[in-house]
Amino acid sequence: MTLSQLRRDALDCFAAAVDAVEPRRLVAAWLRRVDDTVRLGAGVGACHAGPVLVVGAGKAARSMAEAVAQVVGSALRGGVIVVPRGLDVAPIGAITVEAGGHPVPDAAGEAATRQLLDAVAAADPTTLVLVVLSGGASALLVAPAQGVELRDKQDVTRRLLLAGADIAALNTVRKHCSRVKGGGLLRAAAETAGVWTLVLSDVIGDAPDVIGSGPTVGDPSTFTDAAAALGRFLAPDDVPLAVRRHVERGVAGRVPETLKAGDPLLSKARTVVVGRNRDAVAAAATAAKARGYDTSVVADPLHGDAASAGRAVAGALAASRRDRPVAVVGGGETTVRVVGDGRGGRCQHLALTAATLLAGTPAVLLAAGTDGIDGPTDAAGACVDGETTARARALGFDAAAALARTDSHPLLDATGDLVRTGLTGTNVADVVVALRAAC
After folding, report:
1. How many domains does the chain divide into?
2. Among 114, 89, 8, which residue's Cα sits nearest to residue 435?
């Protein structure tokens, strides 16, 4: 079995993972219309006969909204969804599609969110608000809290990302500086018939309060938690003054908290997670087995430092049996603390770390984002092999130095190891596929 064959198999496994979380198929499995009634399935037991307003945000929001529009049919009464810039913004029937900035929010996202909130506020008591949410929604739904401006949110988001903040910490801060996150959208829909939220999860644990910063669910985090998150990743002087003062007022009880469990508004809400990272991982593992690999799945989601995750997966592959082809499959979302002007993303950093350990072996490792994006680059991730570091040296690159500078992208571009898929229209975090031939 050649490295070329191993690479083809790894790419096929990743394609199977992405296909398994195609949003239209997932939404159609949960939502259906019987006569004039829209029903939310799989034991939720919710139904609605009347007009439906569709709103939402995220990298998969367009595909999800298309599926919803097809199901609800003539009951559709318009709506607004916000997608990352670069995706199709043609209307979906009566649903307006707007584009905003990601991962750092921008003025277009703020304007689109204002339009979305206005549509919800105008909905009458007979109208169901059906929300579609996927990864990216936290950046795309932009409604700064009173006293906080867009530039403050942009600054704190950028600083937290560069500091390697995990998604839970980042979203805790976002929720407490927003009028739409942390149950804010549900509050805006208080006078409607109810709110159903369909969620495509891109976070470890699939907690609805973390996905998209939980705009329609109760929020267990507090201003004290937001202050702790800021303190963990940023020096006080690195936190924008308006954000720091707003959080301090919240800790002191002078700003209302986010929506909490037990609030009567939650009785009007139904939330279902229609797809998640483990669905993609399972599909990749099934594809590996079908290709003859003795396959194991990493038990725990990959998280924390990307380099550590890369070493762990490469180590698991090295420790596996050698008398037949083997596969180690995992998924999750790691982080990278960027040094200087290093270019790359968490998947590229993970893969290059693994490449240093796989050198000289008949093995490959693919790490890629299911959304087709890895950091601020044009790649979804990378697929490295046992000859990657040798190719890099021949081209004048040093893998260890690139990792130290968090500058994996130029090296992997030069060696031909980047995976470029373009935007996939879905997002359930990252998938890692490591394959080794019998040896």
Report:
1. 2
2. 8
CB 315 within 8 A of CB 357: yes
Rounded Cα gap, residues 250 and 247, in angstroms:
5
**Predicted structure pTM score:** 0.88
- Is 20 in a helix, a strand, or coil? helix
CB 50 within 8 A of CB 128: yes
Helix (H) or strand (E) holding 133: strand 128-133
CA atoms within 13 A on the CB side of 372: 16
Token representation of residue 20: 């398994």
User: Do residue 97 and residue 34 come from a single domain?
Assistant: yes
Both 40 and 94 in a single domain? yes
Q: Domain of 128: which CATH number? A: 3.40.50.10180
Do 234 and 159 touch, CB atoms closer than 8 A? yes
Looking at residue 241, the DSSP 8-state letter turns out to be: H
Q: Residue range 252-256: average pLDDT?
A: 96
Write down the pLDDT at residue 339: 85
pLDDT tens by residue, 142-194: 999 999 999 999 999 999 988 989 888 999 999 999 999 999 999 999 999 99
Domain that holds residue 66: 22-143+178-221+258-275
CB 56 within 8 A of CB 135: no
Residue 43 confidence (pLDDT): 65
Asked whether residue 136 falls in the same domain as residue 265, the answer is: yes
The domain boundary, picked from 243, 275, 307, lies at 275
